């Protein structure tokens, strides 16, 4: 079996995010019944003059913009340098974010940076809060990367992230994997699910303190199985390749599985998922 190549992994991630920057991730947000991850972050933002927040692996920035709006609503004449810095490896994702920031009148607060999260450096003690939604689990060298992030944070400031729970509890992914077995990744590849203990241990190793975790639910709802397949094929290219053409035997098998296990009384499909919110003090 091939060994994990972190540089190749990151390039593949960048290509995938670039390709689905608008269609896939717009649909992802549209199918999310309630934005509980955003609520988790918004309750933690230290709203004060000159506050600086880092959103690591921000994607198309829907949560970043909600944080920016919160900061903007508390701006005063002595807090003009307040901002949220949004970092992502995908330039297409950031292009979408910048356009949305401009449309919402938040360009003065939102700063974007197209960079590998492992190479970000804004100098010591710069940020009052660092957040990351579904991004930390993809860092190839987690303890070292978190240690570098801590150096950029003011002493006593808050690190917070949201990650997925166990795969069996994340039905938006589990449904497809129950029908289509994905190819095994090379040893050492970062995984998306069940990394709570790994992330918490890495934070402690990086000398963060008061590391805590809380679980909450995120529900995705699609109008039918076809919309679900469209969404997940955009997220997972192995699924698109495995299913083949619409109407194939495997495609139909996944449709039947979704209809049997996730159909609501309204005829839509609902996929409940467990997420974990983690906080730690720099």
From TrEMBL:
Name the record gives this protein: Methyltransferase domain-containing protein
Taxonomic source organism: Galdieria partita
Molecular function via GO: methyltransferase activity
């Amino acid at each position: 079996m091939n060994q994990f190549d972190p540089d190749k992994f990151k390039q593949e991630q960048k290509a995938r995010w670039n390709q689905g920057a608008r269609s896939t991730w717009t649909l992802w947000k549209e199918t999310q019944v309630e934005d509980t991850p955003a609520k988790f972050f918004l309750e933690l933002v230290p709203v004060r003059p000159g506050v600086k927040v880092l959103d690591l692996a921000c994607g198309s920035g829907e949560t970043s913009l909600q944080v920016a709006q919160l900061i903007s609503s508390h701006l005063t004449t002595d807090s003009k340098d307040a901002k949220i810095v949004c970092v992502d490896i995908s330039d297409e994702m950031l292009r979408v974010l910048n356009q949305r920031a401009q449309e919402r009148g938040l360009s003065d607060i939102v700063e974007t940076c197209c960079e590998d999260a492992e190479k970000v450096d804004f100098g010591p003690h710069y940020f009052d809060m660092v957040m990351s939604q579904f991004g930390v689990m993809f860092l190839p060298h987690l303890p070292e990367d978190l240690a570098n992030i801590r150096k950029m944070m003011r002493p006593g400031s808050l690190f917070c992230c949201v990650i997925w729970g166990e795969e069996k509890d994340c039905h938006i992914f589990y449904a497809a994997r129950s029908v289509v077995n994905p190819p095994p990744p090379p040893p050492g590849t970062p995984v998306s699910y069940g990394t709570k203990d790994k992330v918490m241990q890495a934070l402690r190793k990086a000398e963060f303190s008061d590391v805590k975790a809380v679980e909450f639910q995120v529900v995705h709802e699609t109008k039918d199985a076809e919309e679900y397949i469209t969404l997940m094929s955009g997220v997972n290219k192995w699924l698109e390749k495995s299913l083949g053409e619409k109407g194939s035997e495997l495609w139909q098998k996944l449709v039947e599985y979704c209809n049997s296990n996730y159909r609501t009384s309204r005829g839509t499909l609902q996929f409940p998922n467990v997420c974990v919110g983690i906080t730690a003090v720099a």
